[in-house]
Amino acid sequence: KSFFKIAGFNKEDFPSLPEVTEDQMLEIESRTFGDMIKKTMFAVADADARHVLNGALLEIESAEGQKAKIRMVATDGHRLALCERQLGTEFNSVPTAVPRSQTIIPKKTLYEMRRFLDVNEKIKIGIGEKQISLKGEDIFITSRLIDGIYPNYKQVIPRGGDQTIVINRLVFMNVIKRVSVMSREKVKALLIEFTTNNAMLKARDPEIGEAVEDVEIKYEGKGFTIGVNYQYFLDALESMQDENVIIDTQTSLTPCIIKQ
Asked: Rounded to two decimals, what is the model's pTM?
């Protein structure tokens, strides 16, 4: 025979959940929102002194006569990820309680939300001044938002360049993984030399050796070389699903865009 006595807490000390009515929430497909998190969360900063970078920016944009858009943006100051989807909701149908300005969701909250979003159902998102709520058939998640002003990310997104390259995503990923074995762990440097329909990937560590591998691409133009952090490149490619993706850049020294 056993007997246990467990101390408890006063229920009044437990924080109350915010009250969000149905007309204050925005409806979206669960997998759509989960996919947006997957495509941006890797670029969220970790414990950055600029606290707003420790979360992802969520924007809801709508204009009269147009479908509303939902956009998620993340950056750690070195790279930027952006994912945008149409809501299929008319301007007048966007709840008035949903602000049409920025909302910064903490990285930990993104992780928790994504755990529950791989299901084929609609969810509802409620955004308040200080918290965000997510409601599904069997779940309800609420979290405080990060207070602050997110950087103007549109200013740093480079315009389309003269060099547009089409690569096979999985093939390019596998080549990067093989070649990067010879790159210094602290630097993670990778050189990519583009010529007509070919990319040569190079990595070198003076203490270990060098790796070089060619991969077929679709490109017609002048030859040029870029230097990248191979982990940043892999993170971007792994977040995508399309068979082929596009690398767009202006010069060897300007940032490049990877998109599908």
From this structure: 0.86
